[in-house]
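Supplementary Methods. Inverse-folding protocol.

Structures were first reduced to a discrete structure-token string of length 224. This string, shown here, constituted the complete conditioning input.
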């Protein structure tokens, strides 16, 4: 056998990716969510597969679709479900890229019946969700761990702090300040910060191009 596919740079590697938002139930018909489209994570999955990787794509609710025999899509809804799915697979992967916009808080109690409107105001008590990325930083052995940081102020400082605090190899800083960047848009403006605090700033690009830049950086680092 001398298959050209055997020569792809991520052949034989397993990459876990999280994507999209999470939905946190309030009652049987309502949830707390966010505007993440899932696009960034799906682009990362496609580039990884095109490089020959076996991909586990754990995604919250999204309109994105992908059909690729190398990409195993695992749909989840809540932060707890995403945590469980990630932990089911993390031990077996070489690279983990957590691009999901996981809810930071969830309703402390989920009522089994629909909440009826009564008083003029309604107060929901929220509790923190588990930080999936940080939990991987604690247990990681040889995995190359990548996080994202969505910041609106003190961007570099906050991103560096997340990189250290969560024990990451690389963090992708997403600048929400720039027009055309972020959640619903087709484009992103990112900065990479690696574990030795090397900072690489990029121009506004399509999310597909950002995904290529990211896999390029990861390949450079895992082959170094
Ligand atoms: N993340 C996660 N699990 C959570 C919250 C966040 O895995 N419960 C991951 C995201 O996927 C992302 C990174 O942590 O890769 C940073 O997310 P971000 O929202 O920027 O930072 P937080 O640590 O949640 O802090 P804050 O929102 O207060 O800035
Ligand atoms: Ca957050």
């Amino acid at each position: 056998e001398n298959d050209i596919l055997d020569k792809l740079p991520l052949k034989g590697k397993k990459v876990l990716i999280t994507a999209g938002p999470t939905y946190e139930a309030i009652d049987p018909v309502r949830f707390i969510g966010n505007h993440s489209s899932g696009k960034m994570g799906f682009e990362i999955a496609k580039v990884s597969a095109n490089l020959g990787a076996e991909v586990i794509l754990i995604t919250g609710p999204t309109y994105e679709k992908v059909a690729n025999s190398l990409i195993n899509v695992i749909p989840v809804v809540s932060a707890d479900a995403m945590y469980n799915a990630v932990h089911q697979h993390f031990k077996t992967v070489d690279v983990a890229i957590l691009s999901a916009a996981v809810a930071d808080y969830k309703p402390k109690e989920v009522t089994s019946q629909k909440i009826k409107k009564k008083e003029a105001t309604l107060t929901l008590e929220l509790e923190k969700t588990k930080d999936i990325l940080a939990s991987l930083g604690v247990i990681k052995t040889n995995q190359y761990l990548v996080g994202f940081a969505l910041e609106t102020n003190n961007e570099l400082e906050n991103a560096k702090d997340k990189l250290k605090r969560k024990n990451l190899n690389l963090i992708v800083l997403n600048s929400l300040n720039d027009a055309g960047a972020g959640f619903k848009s087709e484009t992103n403006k990112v900065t990479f910060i690696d574990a030795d605090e090397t900072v690489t700033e990029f121009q506004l690009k399509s999310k597909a191009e950002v995904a290529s830049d990211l896999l390029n950086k990861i390949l450079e680092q895992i082959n170094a």
